[in-house]
Amino acid sequence: MIASPETLLEIKNLYTAFVEPEGTLEALEDVSFKVLQGEFICLIGPSGCGKSTLLRTLAGLLPPSKGEVRLRGIPIRGPEHAVGLVFQQPTLLPWRTVAENIALPLELRGQPLAERQQRVAELLEMVGLAGFEATYPQLLSGGMAQRAAIARALAQNPEVLLLDEPFGSLDALTRERMAAALLELWQRQQRTVLMVTHSVDEAALLADRVVVLSPRPGRIIDIIPVRLPRPRDPSLLLDPRLQSVVRELRQALKNGELQGNGRNSQPKA
Amino acid sequence: MGWRDKKINRLQNPNPLLYLLSLGLVLLLWQGALLALEDSARKFILPTTAQVVTRFLRLVVDGSLLQHTGVTLLEMGLGLALGTSTALVLGYAVAHSQVLAHLLEPIIVTSQAMPVVALAPLLAIWFGPGLVSKVVVCALIVFFPILVNVSAGLSHIDNGFRQVFRLLEATRWQRFRWLEVPAALPAFLTGLRVGGTSAAMGAVVGEFVASSAGLGYLVKQGQNLYDTPLMFVAILTLTMLALVTYGALGLIERRILKWRSAGKT
Fold it and tell me: What pLDDT sits at residue A243?
């Protein structure tokens, strides 16, 4: 708390383009920002603006066309233990139980069984799935499956947790509960989190700073700090201070869209 | 536990009374056909139940039924092993190499259209009248359903799962062991059940062409000698073999794929 937090991730002049038969598709354009140790960052922007592309680049799954990402000053060139990613879909292996799914990263690293079991028990407890270790994923609800996926991403104890619209396919009520659970988890762990979301409310509730991206190709419109006290909980959603942040975010999104329309006029808009 | 097991049990062991009833129906039809036939014809065309049972007991007592069944089973087993292992290796290769897939696809499609049964005489010339030619016929019959299922199973693995393994920096071997094998297992087992059941057909066809032992040989011998009870015994034994193979493979499938039945509610 006293020492100023250090920069964990540094994204520098990131450009990403996909070469497709119909032509080059530019996904990200000159994206630069820094993420501090222990920070909770949300990324918002219209559909197809390259939010997922950015996250996949940070996870080392996608090499950037230009620019780079540094983790503690070292360029990321591929997947790393220090970076965990939760996909939009839980992607749990159906032939493994919940516990076996969570243990997968540890198993692939050759961790001994006893240590593995202990760690998995901790993780199950942490995400509120204790008692479901022997259940197969098909029998879990959407929210439970996504919590198992989060536990799997946390298994290797990453420094940065990347979440790609993890609650995108959940119903509104479950979504809110999951946001609350994530908030609680983060407040206990103070791990660095980068989360892509569609929901402006969710971003304002969870984040320390919200990165607002423009329509494709994604550029940073604004980085808006959320100066609300911690610990937070969903009751804050009705708080006027949070609602003013939400208004600010919506305005930034709108500005981005206006700018975007000016830059490359879309035929069907 | 509980109700789910009960449900599976009911599927596995249908009401024994109905089994008996359907068996009785067959026997009734048999007796009806016997009554409809003239005495002289009956002797050559349709044996009585008693004749078949006596023939069966005689074959059991002198040990020849066991010996011939053993021969056919050996052919089936070796053919199944050869066909399965070749199909697994090629299926994996086809799923992983575009070049190989394009190269082999026309051959595979053409050879699937070719009735393997028609190849049996040629194989008998190539491999002789012994064990090998039957094993090859069996292997060929088993080969295609497994190859097709395995390569399809491997190429339909969810891209999300592949991403997870990339993210976790899995080695090629780990990806094989922890992702590809379990993901393709259901399709492989389906292919095995289809192929395994038709392995009996391969063995019998091989024995028809040239042989000195086996259940197919018994059927052929029965034909030559107008010994219809012998033919009945051999055919019924073959049917039992196929049913047992099917049941055993189905049981293995359910054992290995426990997780699948967990999804059914």
Answer: 93
Mapped onto helix, strand or coil, the DSSP state of residue B150 is helix
Is residue A135 helix, strand or coil? Answer: coil
Q: Are the C-beta atoms of A253 and A204 separated by less than 8 Å?
A: no
What pLDDT does residue A265 have? 43
The C-alpha of A86 sits at a distance from chain B's nearest C-alpha, in angstroms, of: 9
pLDDT (tens digit per residue) in A179-222: 888 888 888 887 899 999 989 999 999 999 999 999 888 999 99
> Which of B170, B174, B259 has the CB atom closest to A94's CB atom?
B259
Burial, B47: exposed, middle or buried (Cβ in 10 Å; 0-12, 13-18, 19+)?
buried
Residues A162 and A54: their CA atoms lie apart, in Å, by 10
Contact in structure between B71 and B214 (CB atoms under 8 Å):
yes
Using DSSP, state whether A22 is helix, strand or coil: coil
Q: What is the pTM of this model?
A: 0.81
A117-170 pLDDT per residue, tens: 999 999 999 888 999 999 999 999 999 999 999 999 999 899 999 999 998 888
Interface predicted TM-score (ipTM) of this complex, two decimals? 0.88
**Rg of chain B in Å (alpha carbons):** 23
Sign of the torsion formed by the C-alpha atoms of B203, B204, B209 and B211: positive
Residue of A nearest to B177 (CA): A108
For residue A85, the chain B residues in CB contact (below 8 A) are 167
Percent helix, strand and coil across chain A, each to the nearest 5: 40, 25, 35
Give CA–CA dist B183/B160, Å, rounded.
13
Residue A246 Cα distances to A163, A224, B112, B223, angstroms:
20, 10, 63, 88
Candidate from A91, A136, A156 with C-beta closest to B161: A91
- Strand locations in chain A (E): 7-20, 23-36, 40-44, 66-71, 74-75, 83-86, 160-164, 192-196, 209-213, 220-225
Give the dihedral sign, CA B257/B261/B263/B264. Answer: positive
Q: How far is CA A125 from the centre of its chain?
A: 21
Angle value at C-alpha B170, between B165 and B175, nearest 5 degrees: 70
Torsion of the alpha carbons at A137, A140, A146 and A150, rounded to the nearest 10: -60
Under a CB-based contact definition with an 8 Å cutoff, are residues B195 and B142 in contact?
yes
| Fold annotation for A7-263 | Rossmann fold (3.40.50)
CA dist., res. B93 & res. A252, Å (int): 52
Those of residues 171-200 in B touching chain A at CB distance below 8 A are 174, 178-179, 182-183, 185
Tell me which chain B residue has its CA closest to the CA of residue A84. B167
Domains and CATH numbers, chain B: 1-46 (no CATH), 48-262 (1.10.3720.10)
